[in-house]
Automatic annotation (TrEMBL), chain B:
The gene is ccoO. Residues 53-229 form the Cytochrome c domain. The chain crosses the membrane at residues 12-36. It comes from Mesorhizobium qingshengii. It comes from the Bacteria. Keywords: Heme, Iron, Membrane, Metal-binding, Transmembrane, Transmembrane helix. This is Cytochrome-c oxidase, cbb3-type subunit II.
Amino acid sequence: MITELTSSERQYAAVILVVMAMVGVAMAALGRSDPFGVHGVIVLVYSVGLLFLVLSSFYAPEPRTDRQASYYDDPIKVGIALSMAWAVFGMFMGVWIAAQLAWPTLAFDAAWSTFGRLRPTHTTGVIFGFGGNALIATSFHVVQRTSRARLAGQISPWFVLLGFNLFCILAVTGYVMGVTQSKEYAEAEWYADLWLVVVWVTYFILYLRTLARRKEPHIYVANWYYMAFIVVVAILHIVNNLAVPVSIGHAKSYTIWAGVQDAMVQWWYGHNAVAFFLTSGFLGMMYYYLPKRAGRPIFSYRLSILSFWGITFFYMWAGSHHLHYTALPHWVQNLGMTFSVMLLVPSWASAGNALLTLNGAWHKVRDDATLRFMMVAAVFYGLSTFEGSFLAIRPVNSLSHYTDWTIGHVHAGALGWVAFITFGSLYTLVPALWKRDAMHSAALVEVHFWLALAGTLIYVFAMWNSGIIQGLMWRTYTEDGTLAYSFVDSLIAMYPYYIARAFGGLLFLLGALVACYNIWMTARATPLIAGSQLDLPDRRPATGTAPSPAE
Amino acid sequence: MPELFHRKIERTAIGFVLAIIAAASVGGLVEIAPLFTIHETVEEAPDMRLYTPLELAGRNIYEREGCYACHSQMIRTLRDDVERYGPYSLAVESKYDHPMLWGSKRTGPDLARIGGKYSDLWHVTHLMNPRDVVPESNMPSYRFLARTPLETADFGMQLAAMREVGVPYTDDMIANAARDALGQATPDSDFSAGVVERYGEKTQVSAFDGVATELTEMDALVAYLQVLGRLTDAAYKQTAASEKAPGSQQ
Ligand code: HEM
Ligand code: HEM
């Protein structure tokens, strides 16, 4: 990997890592025993570890001079590996906290392992670790293939990928030490947030510069979604995380937003983290890998346009559906509800577009578990967006809010949609990237598919049941007009479902382990030499930036 | 032809990005900006007091331990919420909350008005091991809080940072932050008069964890729990009726 870099690039990489190591030392010195200091040490160890890797091949021979004639796939390979590692970590945490809800003593009476501290390690691990790495890796693949150009940088792809993982590590290690902003999906503290801004801006520039090298006049649909993901996540992240640290040696900060305004900013962020992280980016995946695997073009270009702009515009209005019947002014709640319902149209346009693309390839869906992963993902996408629009209606939300129904909805989306589309895409991408005919074992893909599907269904049905029961128990009155059930009554009714959910999650985790093994074995097999010749960039000058004379 | 128009935007990455930013900005601007300008968004509550340093420290522990992952602090305007937990929450009640802790999940009950519902001793026993009090509970035990001394050295800086984001702590409060924390948890000590003087008559001075000699994280957390819903009386004066939950029985 490092041998792919020229010696001046190796120097450049070493300089960046030395600077990062110095930042780590400074943080350790400023923070001392504060968790900020511990994070300084982590930054230091991380940078020195990478520096060691760079130095170990520092004097290796120069790479081939015609690097530009091939795609830059090394960062993608590492990204896939990191994504799977985070998947196992994040889902293990999911199973653990699920088990804690059923058997609370599983926290073992320690501080770091209590439910409240572990829960964000689960959400960050799966959303940012698993999802984020998969998005970065696939976006690097898709942008190169659809532009028929190599990534516009040698170091920056590594900086983006490894920098992002440093952010994830700081976030997750922070939670177990008790470092958190307590904003859902934005728990990481101010310094990790600042670092993410640097990484994200680099990502954005890299993406635009690669697009500028494209040999196609038009930007392919998948890239629209990846661009929306990158740009809007940057905006959301910056606004929601504006905060004043207690001092520059303290991990703790206070957000500049307070009370009701904070609630609105937080859920404007939170809902759009769903929209632009868990939806937009993964739609980008879907729009590339699904047609590719099915061997058919996207059903309708018009539907893609409708869906893209609908999602980009409507989603940003919908955040207030997280705050129905609260102290947020009524007019904002109503706007949120209205736009959430309208959001169903562009959402189903994408789900429909995906399923209609498969029309005519159903025999492949039957035989090929990889394509089936993506088909099920599209179905669950349709399902969870329908459910979302339904839950956003105020009277429905009065029942579902605060209950496990929300958790059921989340995981219908997160497992059924996000994880399924990711696994389907990875099973398409991995053989192509390592230049193999197919995955090591088609049977294991099949096994993974059924484990994942069973796990998802058990999880989601358990939570739908428990959520609705819980919601109904809270609002049931006796004959003489008093509340019929105490809170603890409703808690007792939850236990069977908590156990079922932990079991479903365990199946899902086992599936992910099977995937890791299969990917590992595929990467180790001998490559096909002949096939690799076809997958090369177009060497003609870029048409991306220059206006074409015909316009 | 919209389709042809779109074909044109697709040719420039920068143009496309600008279009995304334009489309994505509208919703947030329309919904968030007015919350700062429309006056009725946050009610008036002249009796609203600030968190004492000890309560603020407790609040930080509440965040640190992720209590918000299982407990909401937002009583909705629904009748069953109000009958179960008390008058519905007003925006003003969280006006000094950086960040708000309204929560999104009730694995445990709402805590917006838990202050005063139980004795300090109940809370300590419950936090040490919830199953000693409620055998069916799945809340984690927090014994370590009672073992961990409360770090007060930086309390002045904590209050100063809060002032930075808009909470009206005075110089006097900032200067005495660490002493006030100690004073609030050690009744009859030289410092307890000061905290009442600075934060108001209603400030509760108590040996929260039952041990008046040492300040622990348990003191801070219980002090915070006991002030929840009691920073102002505004919610009790509110006369508007709550809503009947749609479809609820009776
Ligand atoms: C092995 C499978 C999984 C298990 C067992 C699992 C379990 C859990 C549990 C127990 C919670 C806490 C629920 C509560 O507070 O009541 C949770 C929350 C959450 N999980 Fe998972 N999870 C799994 C996979 C995933 C995946 C793959 C994703 C995302 C891609 C995900 C995203 C989330 C999110 C966003 C939340 C927070 C929900 C909210 O606050 O409403 N989970 N999960
Ligand atoms: C049309 C699209 C969608 C709409 C209108 C929608 C609407 C909603 C609503 C109303 C809630 C409940 C809020 C509450 O009562 O607290 C919610 C929660 C949530 N949804 Fe969706 N949803 C949609 C699609 C999705 C998708 C595709 C995912 C993907 C994973 C997703 C992930 C989540 C998460 C993570 C939460 C939990 C937030 C929290 O409380 O922590 N949603 N959504």
